[in-house]
Specification:
heterodimer, A: 350 residues, Rossmann fold, OB fold (Dihydrolipoamide Acetyltransferase, E2P), 35% strand, elongated, B: 272 residues, mainly alpha, MetI-like fold, 13 helices, globular, membrane (chain A), ATP hydrolysis activity (chain A), translocase (chain A), ABC_transpr_MalK/UgpC-like (chain A), ATP binding (chain A)
């Protein structure tokens, strides 16, 4: 059983192309995160799968069955909305029970299923309340409960955590992780937060301008980003990408000179801030740059260097008390941590 | 300062109340007065009350069916306007289509023409249909102006409900129509109630169309009152009795939905 988008295109009446021939296939049981900046088409992809929008071209299939023209209620898909979309005139219990009532489930069975899912989401004590009396986190749990209670094959979540405050967001993230492990359901989760994507997903689909840029496990996306866009989008602070030239196996850009395994010519070098090493002694392989800004985000320290107009960021856990802005610092760019991108297209070279 | 402000406010309110209520109270008193008390040259606040005006007009003159005519016309046109207007308003609130705002404005313009200007065409229209002198003609005529009111007011109420609610209902298993009828309409119920009451009042009070379209059979109360102006003089006691009965439903409804009504009206005004 798999869900597949086949050359799915969505153009809106105002002329914008939200999705451009999207091909995406994943198995039931996965936790898929659609990740991208605003306007990347991730929400559109989610709404197309839900059936709330109709594609302008292409097909969507679930388990080999074409569902492109199927109304939402026949798709066996539940959905959680960013603004919760709870029915304010119904109690929490009735909100959760609503999909079951529509399906004419017997009353004692409804009682049992609602209790069960409410306990799972730890909202059992609020069942008699009205949505207006709930906190953001509680309301979000009710929305999740409502989407799960009738056990649809797929549960869609459109930025479900972005209306919550930071601490609650972390907490709900953990809860969703737990839920996915326990229920073994398919989750499709839309977010622009790379950290949420990294922690939740079994696989991440990175979208940009309506196109699928990379679809892989979080680890692979982090370690082998397909291009400069993914490299800079994943990880905070973003990966350093430095434009320069390779001559005789040495990459040069401003004050940076380091050995690379690359053919001569223009190159964009990438290195993650946490993989740049502080060199204790000036060695031949080290680069010396001047500290521009120092930010202590305990227990880590961020050092930002200026290199002829480009900034280079380093993230380290080692003690930087002695380092002050304006001071030159020796750095080492380990060869195994380097990413090579095409200088023009930004695509990964290898 | 605060205290004197309060006294002033109460004073102003009292004045407004006196001005607004005196005619009504006078009418109420008149309906219980005998002929001599009514025609006395100086106003009489104290008199021997009589109940004779009510049976005289409602039973002897057979005005009771007029109450039912009024009810049928007002309820009929209200139900018709809401049933047709609310789905239209929902479409205006949710969908985008070419010429939407122009069409919406067109609904409003139907209320801008002076009613008298379409009275004669309406009469000819209903004569062709064979509906003159029936309540149906008045129900349809009243729907013509109540409909635009419903569309105009309900659009704002529907727009206030996030569209994700419709979508959530559809994900939960409703069709689009099901989501509207089972979820959106209950959520918009306060606005719907305010709109319906306003329609009811407008239709209940309407005189011109009813007067032109029905001569006898389907007469509502408003058209019945001029019948009490006879060549031998106006029967003020009976006029007052009819007027008292005619204002009762309005009073009851307005008190029932006062809060929603004010909100509904101001809302329409701001959003429009």
């Amino acid at each position: 059983m798999a869900v597949s988008f086949k050359e799915v295109t969505k153009r809106f009446p105002d002329g914008t192309t939200a999705l451009d021939r999207l091909d995406l296939e994943f198995d039931l049981g996965e936790f898929i995160v659609l990740l991208g900046p605003s306007g990347s088409g991730k929400t559109t992809a989610c709404r197309l799968l839900a059936g709330l929008e109709a594609p302008s071209g292409g097909r969507i299939e679930i388990g080999g069955k074409d569902i492109t023209d199927l109304p939402p209620r026949f798709r066996d898909i539940g959905m959680v909305f960013q603004n919760y979309a709870l029915y304010s005139h119904k109690s929490v219990f009735e909100n959760i029970a609503y999909p079951l009532r529509i399906r004419k489930v017997a009353a004692p069975e409804i009682e049992r299923l609602v209790k069960e899912v409410a306990d799972l989401l730890r909202i059992g004590d609020y069942l008699h309340r009205k949505p207006a009396q709930l906190s953001g986190g509680q309301a979000q749990r009710v929305a999740v409960a409502r989407a799960l209670v009738w056990e649809p094959a797929i549960c869609l979540m459109d930025e479900p955590l972005s209306n919550l405050d930071a601490l609650l967001r972390l907490h709900m993230r953990t809860e969703l992780n737990r839920l996915h492990r326990k229920l073994d359901k398919t989750f499709v989760f839309v977010t622009h937060d790379q950290e949420e994507a990294m922690t939740l997903a079994t696989r991440i689909a990175v979208l940009r301008d309506g196109k699928l840029v990379q679809f892989d496990e979080p680890r692979t996306i982090y370690r082998r980003p397909a291009n400069r866009f993914v490299a800079e989008f994943m990880g905070r602070p973003a990966m350093n990408t430095i434009d320069g030239m390779v001559e005789g196996g040495v990459f040069r850009a401003g004050d940076i000179a380091c050995a690379v395994d690359c053919a001569d010519g223009p190159l964009m070098l990438g290195i993650r801030p946490e993989q740049i090493e502080l060199a204790d002694h000036a060695t031949t392989s080290s680069v010396t740059l001047t500290v521009d800004v120092k930010e202590a985000i305990e227990p880590d320290t961020l050092l930002i260097f200026q290199n002829r107009g480009n900034s280079v960021t380093l993230r380290t856990q080692s003690n930087c008390d002695a380092i002050e802005p304006g001071q030159p610092v020796g750095l080492r760019f380990p060869k195994e941590a380097l990413h090579y991108f095409d200088a023009r297209s930004g695509e990964r070279l290898r | 300062m605060n205290r004197s402000y309060k006294i002033l406010a109460i004073g102003v309110l009292a004045c407004v109340l006196i001005i607004a209520l005196t005619p009504y109270v006078w009418m109420l008193l008149t309906s219980f007065k005998g002929r001599l008390d009514i025609l006395s040259p100086e106003p009489r606040w104290l008199f021997t009350p009589t109940l004779s005006n009510y049976p005289a007009v409602f039973i002897d003159k057979d005005y009771l069916p007029l109450v039912f005519n009024s009810l049928i016309i007002s309820l009929g046109s209200t139900v018709l306007s809401v049933v047709i207007g609310a789905p239209a308003a929902y479409v205006f609130a949710r969908s985008d289509f070419a010429g939407k705002e122009d069409l919406f404005f067109f609904f409003l313009t139907t209320r801008m023409a002076p009613p008298i200007s379409i009275a004669v065409p309406l009469f000819l229209f209903f004569t062709t249909l064979g509906l003159t002198d029936t309540v149906y003609a008045v129900v349809i005529a009243h729907t013509s102006f109540n409909l635009s009111l419903v569309v105009w007011m309900m659009r704002g109420f529907f727009a206030e409900i996030p569209k994700e609610i419709d979508e959530a209902a559809m994900m939960d298993g409703r069709s689009r129509l099901g989501a509207f009828v089972r979820v959106i309409v209950p959520l918009a119920a306060p606005g719907l109630a305010a709109t319906a009451v306003l329609c009811f009042i407008l239709s209940w009070n309407e005189f011109l169309y009813a007067f032109i379209l029905v001569a006898f059979e389907g007469r509502p109360l408003t058209v019945g009152i001029p019948g009490l102006i006879t060549p031998h003089g106006t029967l003020w006691g009976q006029v007052a009795a009819v007027a008292v009965v005619a204002t009762l439903p309005i009073l009851v409804f307005t008190f029932l939905v006062q809060k929603h009504l004010v909100r509904g009206l101001t809302f329409g005004a701001v959003k429009g």
